[in-house]
Design goal:
- It is a single chain.
- With about 150 residues, the protein is mostly helical.
- The chain has one domain: Serine Threonine Protein Phosphatase 5, Tetratricopeptide repeat (Alpha Horseshoe), CATH 1.25.40.
- It has 7 helices and 2 strands.
- A two-stranded antiparallel sheet has the order 1-2.
- Helix 2 packs across helix 3 (about 60-70), helix 4 packs antiparallel against helix 5 (about 95-110) and helix 6 (about 115-130) packs antiparallel against helix 7.
- It starts with 7 loop residues before the first helix and ends with a strand.
- The model is unreliable at about 25-35 (pLDDT under 50).
Length: about 150
Amino acid sequence: MKIKYMSISSIKVTILFLLLSLLIPSSLFALQLPRPKEYGDKVYEDNFANYSRNCKAGYSHQCMALGSLYYSGMEVGQDFDKALSLFNLSCGAGNSNGCYMVGRMYKYGQGVPLSITNAIRMFNRSCMLGRQIACDEYLHLRSQYARDKNGLVK
């Protein structure tokens, strides 16, 4: 196996680039990504309108995104009832994220009465659709709660 050495000219070029990098501020080399022309409510209104239109057209992932807007309340007013409705619609269409979010809402009692039984059921459905975090939640809740003839008990 032969070891190749750098030629004198390649060493000079390397030293030149090192010196230039010390002399020229790094901000000149920073990648400047283009920003949208408009910030604020207009951008959020566009997202909301697009998600609404596409959800009505039957795209389950868009219903999930619209439900997330209502769940978080960051771009529209927080409304757990609308979020739950959209997550259920998404879940019914086979979206694992929608099922996972319904399970979270039942687990924490957000917009619905707290129900560990329903949370476990929804996490299991989401897990079967391929969402790994739902599988983890399902196993955690199943190990934490035991089943008796009247339902789940701690």
